[in-house]
Amino acid sequence: MVKICCIGAGYVGGPSMAVMALKCPAIEVAVVDVSRPRIDAWNSDRLPVLEPGLDAVVRACRGRNLTFSADVDLHVVDADIVFVSVNTPTKARGLGAGRAPDLAYWESAARVVAAAASRSRPGRGKIVVEKSAVPVRTAEAMERILQAHVTGSGVGGGAFQVLSNPEFFSEGTAVRDLLCPDRVVIGGRDTDTGAVRALADVYAHWVPEDRIVTTGLWSAELAKLAASALLAQRVSSVNALSALCEATGADVSDIARAVGSDGRVGGGGCGRWFLDAGVGFGGPSLRRDVLNLAYACEGHGLHEAAEYWRQVVAVNEYQKGRFVRRVVASMLGTVAGKKVAVLGLVFKKGVRDTRESPAVDVCRGLLSDGARVSVYDPVVGETQIRMDTAAAEVEVEVEVEVARDAYEAADGAHGLCVLTEWDEFRTLDYHRVFDGMMRPAFVFDGRNVVDAGELREIGFVVYAVGKPQDAWLNGMPAVA
Fold first, then answer.
1. 3 state SS of 32
2. Does residue 466 contact residue 241 with C-beta atoms inside 8 Å?
3. Where residue 157 falls among pLDDT bands split at 50, 70, 90?
4. How far out from the chain centre does Cα 169 lie?
């Protein structure tokens, strides 16, 4: 029986291993983490990750061939294949701050794997698989750490084989993406090695052979960063167009439909995917991966290429700032002392993740301009909302208000910002919302989810990203 251990019980490790256990009932899968609260959550009825279908997958496997444990060493020692799926955030300080990845967790995991070798059965090698998003040639550093521990340990040379197996699923559709992936990429020093074949055999339990792509190590590592960067570029491109649409009276949805039907742009079947304009992209990986790619370009002297990728992030920051400026300009040039309701704090519907969410930045921008901000999100608790919206650069004494529902958030508000595309925001009783708001009542739709025409008939002044502007807004200063 093959035994698999995954170091890291986060957004990637947990779902990935749960689906692997479901599809490979003859394989023992252990997910380990040094965080006892996180492991306890995976063993509870309330998982730490909100993903449609994940509860059912975990319940089907937990206690059978899927284990969540804080005993890291025990399971690493016993494993044949060890996945490393730890966080690699952007460095907050030091060399490369704000651009380079922080590999402290990754190196710590590598040393745990290396130390476990001396306690494994003699002659038993391990396949070590990078699952985290890492810079190109990180596998080489992994190999050096492992080999340094092997020397003199009695394990013998060649005890470790390092592979790269990046994850491409999207939060909110993780289970679906894992059950039916577009592709599985496995990178190795030699694509014909036993290690590559062994990992491919695991995925072959449910993934068609033509979707298992084997590449060199460096290509697999770069593929993950490239996928994130090209997706972010697509979002930033349509958001840059949305600004021009507002200035000229064009409709960004019409533009997206026209260009998305072009196979060269829409991808031969994916159509308008990721061509919807909004307040900006978010989540834990896109910005990080684009900046990591830019930093890698810098490191190789490719300054023009680095600047190109940095501009993808710069346009995203511009879009968030542009939204805040539009709110302020529309509300007679000031939001000081005015209540502004914010509907949605997560970066997209279907997740519980507020990391790098544009909604958080919009809240901070409004707070810094003196607004009273009332936040409602159906899945984010009060403590998290207060933590996310607090920022050192926002010098305000009043914290955000946390509302129990959308109607409470909007009660007495001058303006309402829709910043996450939760379905419930599409079907609110906007007559009731309007009745409870101050006049004029503004709606700022950062996700283009409301029916602007219907809301204008009710009496709202409506701003929608990339759409022809409300008559009220046409008379406002062009500060956006």
1. strand
2. yes
3. very low
4. 10
Q: How far is CA 40 from CA 19, 35, 47, 67, 69, in A?
A: 19, 9, 9, 11, 8
Alpha-carbon gap, residue 272 to 422, rounded angstroms: 19
User: Angle 27-29-34 (CA atoms, 0-180°, nearest 5)?
Assistant: 165
pLDDT tens, 121-141? 655 678 999 998 887 888 888
Instruction: For residues 303 and 297, give the distance between their C-alpha atoms in angstroms, rounded to a whole number.
Output: 7
Are 322 and 358 within 8 A, CB to CB?
no
3-state class of 206 per DSSP? Answer: coil
Q: Mind listing the pLDDT tens digit for each residue in 55-78?
A: 999 999 999 999 999 999 999 999
Contact between 175 and 52 under an 8 Å Cβ cutoff? The reply is yes
Three-state secondary-structure class, residue 432 = helix
The secondary element (H helix, E strand) that includes residue 293 is helix 286-299
Query: Contact at 8 Å (CB) between 177 and 169?
Result: yes
Close Cβ partners of 466 (under 8 Å, ≥ 6 residues apart):
238, 239, 241, 242, 243, 245, 246, 251, 252, 253, 255, 277, 448
Asked whether residue 155 carries a pLDDT value surpassing 60, the answer given is no
Q: What's residue 476's pLDDT?
A: 66
Alpha-helical segments (H) within 331-470: 358-368, 382-389, 406-410, 423-426, 430-436, 452-458
Q: What is the DSSP string of 381-417?
A: -HHHHHHHH--TT---SSPPEE-SSHHHHHTT-SEEE
Helix H or strand E segment including 77: helix 72-78
Cα separation, 445 vs 456, in Å, equals 13
Q: How far is the CA of 406 from the CAs of 165, 193, 269, 275, 349, in angstroms?
A: 42, 56, 37, 27, 15
CB 293 within 8 A of CB 226: yes
Name the one residue in this structure whose structure tokens are 């319940």: 59
Distance CA 324, CA 294 (A): 27
Record the tokens describing residue 449, joined without a space: 């989810």
User: Which tokens sit at 111?
Assistant: 């040393």
- Region label for 256, one of left (φ > 0), alpha (ψ between -120 and 50) or beta (otherwise): alpha
Closest C-alpha among 431, 429, 425 to residue 447: 425
Question: Beta partners for 374?
Answer: 341, 401
Residues 201/178, Cβ–Cβ less than 8 Å: no
Unique residue bearing structure tokens 């790619």: 293
Which structure tokens are listed for 354? 């507020």
